[in-house]
Structures are given as C-alpha cells and as structure tokens.
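FAQ: What does the model actually see?

It sees only this:
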Amino acid sequence: MDWHSLAKGFESYLRLEKGLSKNSIEAYKHDLARMSDFFTEVKPIKALSVSYPDLTDFVHHSAKSTPNPRSRARLISGVKAFFRYLIMEDLRDDNPAELLETPRLPQKLPDTLSKEEINQILNSIDLSEPSGTRNRAILETLYASGLRVSELVNLKISMIYEDEGFLRVIGKGNKERLVPIGKEALKFIKIYRDEIRSHMTVKKEHSDTLFLNRRGSGLSRVSVFTIVKDTARTAGITKNISPHTFRHSFATHLVENGADLRAVQEMLGHESITTTEIYTHLDRTYLRDTVLLYHPRNN
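And it is asked to produce this:
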C-alpha cells in the first residue's frame, strides 16, 4: 500500500475509533505528511518497509526545520501513533518507532489566579447589564467546575442537574463525565437562565445551549477568551489570563486544600494521572513559599 492510502486509513481510525478532535487529527495528518514526503522524495521507502534507522534519519532531517523541542516531541508522537495503527491493522508486526526518543521537555507550570484575584474579577462584573449577568455565570462556572472552554460553549441546559449539584460534560474524544458544581455557580446560572436567557430570541438549533450571544446563537471559543480577558482587564488584573487559567486555578486551589489527586483527575477529565500531577508541583511551590514566608528562622 502507498503512503496516501495508509494516510487516509489512519485519518479514519483517528476520527472514528479514537474519537479525536478536528484539531488533533489535523496535527497528526500534518506530521504524517512530513514523514511521507521524506520517504517519497528524500529517501524513497514504502511505509511497510521503514526501519528504525530510517526513522532516525527522518527525525534528524526534520530537526533542522523543527528546532522547538515541543514540536519535535509532537512529531515523534504522531509517528509512533501511525505505526501502532499499522500493527493494529495487521499491516506490520513490528513498530520501528518504538525506540525513538522523545526530547525532554521543560515542565511549564500553568499560570494561576489567587483566590483574592478570582474574587476581584468576579466582583468587577456589572450585573445591571444582561451581558454582565451572563459573563458572571460563565466565569463562576469555569472556576467552580474546571471546564475546558470547548466544554463550556457546548454545555446544554439539559446537562445541568441542579438538585444533585452536577454537570454532565462532553469532553475530549466525546467522553462524558459528571462534574460537581457549587451552589454559587448554580445560583448565577439560574439567574442568567431565568432572567436574561428566557427573554431572548433563541435560534432553534441552540434551544438547549446554555450560554448564548446576543443573536441567540451559542458562544464561540474566541468569544469566551475575549470575555475573560476583558473582565480581567477591567478588574485591574495584569496577568495574561485565559479561560484555561480558571481551570488551572480550580485544580490548584483544590490540591492546595488537600483534595485527592484521583478526584481532581476525574473532575478535569484527564486520561492519565500524570497530567494531573503537575498540580502537585504547584502545591509544593505554594508550600515552599509559605514556609519561606512564615517560618521564624526565615525572617
């Protein structure tokens, strides 16, 4: 089989069986296209005949145009996924990418907001404006539940279980999970839904969508980013924040207060506990700073 035919099958596998997002699939396709170009034009070899030395040649060749370690790591991840797919389809019985080394990446701790900064942002919102009531409900929901921005914009009214205090969320790979949400966030969702949204002309396809724009359609991801940044600026917060900052702050504050890491993993929808473990590092930093600040021998 040629590279083009295998690439089409790989794309179908990623979409139908893995349930990846459009952006993730595009990233994998881009990486596979780079590899197929190399083994078509630079070192002509069929996919089913590629060996480990061939792949190391490709990685070294790609490094010249991909100096960023994170980009190289993603490229290698895509290569490994492709050969795993070939094995799964019984097209190969070995994985020549198995021994490829992924570049060591410096651990980047996410920016977070303090509890005081969160309150500063929330209290700065003008609730006399319809958009202000909606925005307060949005930010309360982000901080109370740690949702991704894509999960927030796709949140349905029918997915809110007020009496139980849960949201039903559709996360990455169309995986569902139940996320607890507090009374304060539910209070502002109810105010927005009953006093603002109920008086809007809502487009039919968004009749169940919770957060709407003024035209009665669902909000876009970009709109939520703009709401967060504008509100933070109004509140006098100089940090460069995004909707994800509220997600990081949600997890960080839980871990700081002793929440079980497995519970935080479940609430965030992380597939692996190692992704959630970054918040233990944040917690250690917080503890270190607390000791340095308050221990009598450090004063």
